[in-house]
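Priority: medium. Attachment 1 of 2:
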C-alpha cells in the first residue's frame, strides 16, 4: 500500500491461516480491510468516493497484491486523486497480472466475504443494505453483473431527470421509450441474477443456520419485488408491464417508482419475517449464517474458498456463535480478523493465528 488512507507506505507478507490484526480504534485496522476489499471488488465498502481513500495531500494511492495463484498472480489498483483546479473526479486504474483490466476482473481473481459491524443492521436496517449485500454476492458470481448494475444506475439517473423535466413541461414524453428500454433490459437481467443467486444460496444458508442454531427452524431469503412476474413472464416482461401501469404516477412524482432499485430481500424463519419478531440474538445468528453461506457458495465456483474478512465483529457475538465462526475460520486457507482486544476472541483462534499490531500508518508482528 502507498498513500492509502492512513498508510503512507506498507509492504508486508502474510502467511496462510488466520491473521489477527489488533489495535485501538482509528489506528488503521479497518483501512487494511478496506484495502483488501478494493483489491477484490474494485471499490470500497465504506465510501462511494474513491478520492476519500487517497492519503491526505498525495496525488494517488496504490494497492498491489501478490496472490500466489497461477491464473492471477498479481493485482494492482491505482486511485488518482482529482485535480483541485478542475471539476474532474478521481480516476481508477486496474491491472491483473500486469494487464490493464476493468475493475470487475478483480472479483474473478480474489473473492472475499466481509463481515463488518454495520452488517448487524442487515435485517432491521433499510432495504438498501440488503440490496447491496445481495448485489455484492451477485457480482462475485457473475462477472458481467457489475457492468449491468452500473449501466442501470446511470440510466435510472437519466430517466429520473427526464421525468422531472417532463413534469415541468421542459421535455417531451417521446424521449422516455429509450430510457425505458435500457431499464427493462438491464433491470430484468439484474433481477434474474438476484433470483438465481438466492436460489443457489438457499441450501448453504439452511445448512449454515442449522449448524449454528439447529432448534430455531429453517432460514430462507425471499425476494420482494415491485414487479412480480405473471405466469409466462420474464422479469424483463414484468418490469416493462409495470412501467406502463405506473407511467402517469411516475410523471406526477418525477421519479422512477418501479425497478430493482426499489426491491427488497426478506430474512424469514419458518415463513415468518425475522425483522418483525426476532431477538437480537436470532438476528445475529441469521446474519452470521448468511455470511458463512456466502463462503460456501463462492467456494464451489472454482474450488477455491474466498478470503474471509472479519472487521471487529467478535464482540457482537456470544461465545456459542464465536465458536462456530472459529471452526469455519480453521478450515480456510487464509482469513483476516481485526479487534481492539484479543479478549473478545476464542482462545483457540488466538493460539492458531498470526498476530499483528496496527498503529497509525504501520503494521508489525505482535511480540
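Attachment 2 of 2:
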Amino acid at each position: 500500500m502507498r498513500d492509502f488512507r492512513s498508510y503512507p507506505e506498507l509492504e508486508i507478507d502474510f502467511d496462510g491461516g488466520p491473521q489477527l490484526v489488533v489495535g485501538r480504534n482509528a489506528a488503521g485496522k479497518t483501512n487494511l480491510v478496506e484495502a483488501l476489499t478494493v483489491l477484490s471488488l474494485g471499490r470500497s465498502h465504506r465510501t462511494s468516493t474513491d478520492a476519500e481513500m487517497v492519503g491526505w495531500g498525495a496525488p494517488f494511492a496504490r494497492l498491489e497484491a501478490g496472490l500466489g495463484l497461477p491464473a492471477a498472480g498479481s493485482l494492482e489498483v491505482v486511485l488518482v486523486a482529482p485535480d483541485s483546479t478542475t471539476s474532474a473526479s478521481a480516476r481508477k486504474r486496474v491491472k491483473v497480472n500486469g494487464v490493464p483490466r476493468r475493475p470487475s476482473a478483480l472479483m474473478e481473481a480474489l473473492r472475499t466475504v466481509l463481515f463488518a459491524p454495520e452488517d448487524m443492521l442487515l435485517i432491521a436496517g433499510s432495504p438498501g443494505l440488503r440490496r447491496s449485500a445481495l448485489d455484492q454476492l451477485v457480482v462475485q458470481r457473475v462477472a458481467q453483473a457489475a457492468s449491468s448494475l452500473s449501466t442501470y444506475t446511470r440510466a435510472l439517473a437519466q430517466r429520473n431527470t427526464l421525468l422531472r423535466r417532463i413534469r415541468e413541461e421542459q421535455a417531451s414524453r417521446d424521449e422516455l421509450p429509450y430510457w425505458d428500454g435500457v431499464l427493462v433490459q438491464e433491470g430484468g437481467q439484474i433481477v434474474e441474477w438476484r433470483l438465481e443467486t438466492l436460489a443457489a444460496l438457499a441450501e448453504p444458508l439452511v445448512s449454515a443456520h442449522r449448524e449454528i442454531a439447529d432448534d430455531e427452524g429453517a432460514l430462507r431469503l425471499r425476494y420482494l419485488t415491485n414487479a412480480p412476474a405473471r405466469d409466462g413472464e420474464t422479469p424483463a416482461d414484468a418490469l416493462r408491464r409495470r412501467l406502463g401501469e405506473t407511467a402517469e404516477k411516475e410523471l406526477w412524482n418525477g421519479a422512477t417508482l418501479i425497478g430493482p432499485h426499489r426491491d427488497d430481500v426478506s430474512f424469514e424463519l419458518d415463513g415468518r419475517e425475522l425483522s418483525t419478531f426476532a431477538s437480537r440474538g436470532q438476528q445475529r445468528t441469521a446474519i452470521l449464517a448468511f455470511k458463512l453461506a456466502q463462503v460456501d457458495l463462492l467456494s464451489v465456483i472454482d474450488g477455491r474458498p474466498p478470503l474471509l474478512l472479519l472487521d471487529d465483529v467478535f464482540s457482537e457475538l456470544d461465545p456459542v456463535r464465536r465458536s462456530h465462526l472459529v471452526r469455519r475460520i480453521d478450515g480456510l486457507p487464509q482469513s483476516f480478523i481485526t479487534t481492539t482486544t484479543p479478549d473478545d476472541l476464542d482462545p483457540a483462534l488466538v493460539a492458531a493465528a498470526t498476530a499483528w499490531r496496527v498503529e497509525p500508518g504501520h503494521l508489525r508482528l505482535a511480540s
